[in-house]
Design a protein that fits this description.
This protein is an alpha+beta fold. The chain has helices spanning about 30-35, 50-60, 80, 115-120, 165-175, 205-235, 285-290, 305-310, 325-330, 365-375, 415-430, and strands at about 15, 20-25, 65-70, 75, 100-105, 105-110, 125-135, 145-160, 180-185, 245-255, 260-270, 270-280, 295-305, 350-355, 380-390, 395-405, 435. A hairpin with a 2-residue loop joins β10 (about 245-255) and β11 (about 260-270). The structure holds adenosine-5'-[phenylalaninyl-phosphate] (FA5) and magnesium ion.
């Protein structure tokens, strides 16, 4: 794939994660600063915003038949993350530019759905909730970070139960009313040609299961966003949206392991916010998990970090990972309180412009990662600011602007220059670019 003169990044012979050792190979692509994040377990810290949000949702679902799993190791197999869920062999999210691999068969989970297989197998209650840190190679900015958190929920019934329909209806009625304003064009007829129902379920079963799913997700969204409003009011905010009823809408979605599938969006400060993907579980996933052909049910997956940013008024997703006590001292178990910003340290901007070597393709994510490898959390933002093709030579040029900034201190020009130089060296050595 790459030009032969290109230097290949080197990794140690083995990587150790949560006490397990993995032999590295040509798939390995996890830099040390990502390896370090895997031991942080923010969702298990009772006085960290991510842990407080997890606790809020778990408390809301108490007594409703869910088992909570919070201790899954971040390394999973390609089988668990992809194959068992029905991802095709050439699905783009398997690529090394999107996913962190320990080696060919083991990776850092990209979503909590990687544990559906195991939980369907071992869970003894009708439903479960899994919370975990997940990893994706991604851009770096205020709302994107290569590590974030998800919560997965699922619920099953058995069609051997001769009162199945009555049972689901009773379960629907047991979900507390929310008073949400719900826009859902798919409530009565959940499936259609684009978002088909599965053969093994009747129309009525699909309808009941999807109403149970949607009411459950609406219940969770309501709890969380009402808590966000309450915290904002307690902090003295008088903005109009705080007194308006909460509004959500359902849109169709596609996931390889559910059908039909949807996403819920929440109307928040004048924008529709994508919150949670979900759907009726594909029977194949249940069969792969060793369950009988009588089982049917739903699953959802919600991203916690952006919601926690709203709840706690946190302006930047990277703050969740800071070790600065001015951050951590502000939060306590069971309390939703608005973050009080402490002084921001000034950033230092540096541009890098180069000609791309046409035999060494350079994916934007590779630039992002090269910068992160050297700058770690000192990288506030990376953006492609200019791109052009030379009219005579046909050569392609790109310019990236990097803002270096520390959450905790002033950076010196010298240390930024050193990081920036190391970034440019890597781009030259690994991607054969020519710095302009
Ligand atoms: C999933 O990850 C599915 N596993 C969800 C699912 C589960 C669907 C079960 C059906 C059944 P998606 O890639 O859309 O889907 O991510 C889910 C949520 O994670 C998003 O709605 C968003 O809130 C959050 N999220 C995604 N990428 C990022 C990121 N880079 N930073 C922070 N949050 C993110
Ligand atoms: Mg999505």
């Amino acid at each position: 794939r790459y030009n032969s003169s290109k230097k290949v990044r080197e990794y140690p012979k083995t990587l150790t994660l949560d006490g397990k050792t993995y032999e590295t190979d040509e798939w390995t692509n996890i830099p040390p600063f990502i390896m370090d994040l895997t031991s942080r377990k923010l969702h298990k810290k009772p006085d960290h915003p991510i842990g407080i949000l997890r606790d809020l949702v778990e408390t809301s679902f108490k007594g409703m038949g869910y088992t909570y799993y919070n201790d899954f190791n971040p390394s999973v197999t390609t089988f668990e993350n992809y194959d068992v869920l029905g991802f095709s062999k050439d699905h783009p999210s398997r690529s090394r530019s999107d996913t962190y691999y320990l080696n060919e068969n083991n990776l850092l989970r990209t979503h909590t759905s990687a544990h559906e297989h195991e939980c369907f197998q071992k869970c003894k209650t009708p439903g479960y909730l899994i919370t975990a840190d997940v990893y994706r190679k991604d851009e770096v900015d205020r709302t994107h970070y290569p590590a974030f958190h998800q919560m997965e929920g699922a619920r099953l019934w058995s069609s051997n139960d001769k009162d199945l329909e009555e049972k689901i209806i009773a379960d629907i009625n047991a979900i507390p009313e929310t008073g949400l304003i719900v826009e859902d064009p798919f409530r009565e007829t959940p499936s259609n040609v684009n978002n088909p129902k599965q053969e093994y379920m009747t129309d009525r079963q699909v309808q009941l299961v999807s109403v149970h799913l949607k009411k459950t997700v609406e219940f969770m969204v309501h709890r969380v966003f009402e808590a966000a409003k309450k915290a904002a009011k307690a902090a003295g905010s008088t903005e109009a949206y705080l007194n308006e009823p909460l509004k959500v809408r359902w849109v169709e979605a596609y996931f390889p392991w559910t059908s039909p599938s949807w996403e819920i969006e929440v109307w928040w400060k004048g924008e529709w916010l994508e919150c949670c993907g979900c759907g009726v579980v594909q029977q194949q996933v249940l069969l792969n998990s060793g369950l009988g052909s009588d089982k049917l049910g739903w699953a959802f997956g919600v991203g916690l970090d952006r919601i926690a940013m709203i709840l706690f008024g946190i302006p930047d997703i990277r703050l969740f990972w800071t070790l600065d006590e001015r951050f951590s001292k502000q939060f306590s178990s069971g309390n939703i309180t608005i973050f009080k910003p402490y002084s921001k340290f000034p950033g230092i901007k540096r541009d890098t412009s180069f000609w791309i070597n046409e035999t060494s393709p350079l994916h934007v994510n590779e630039v992002m990662e090269t910068v992160r490898n050297h700058g770690g959390d000192l990288v506030e933002n990376v953006s492609l600011v200019d791109e052009f093709t030379h009219p005579k030579t046909g050569k392609q040029s790109q310019c990236y602007r990097i803002n270096y900034q520390s959450m905790d201190r002033n950076l010196t020009n010298d240390e930024v220059n050193e990081i920036h130089k190391a970034v440019e060296n890597d781009l030259v050595n690994y991607f054969n670019v020519t710095i302009r």
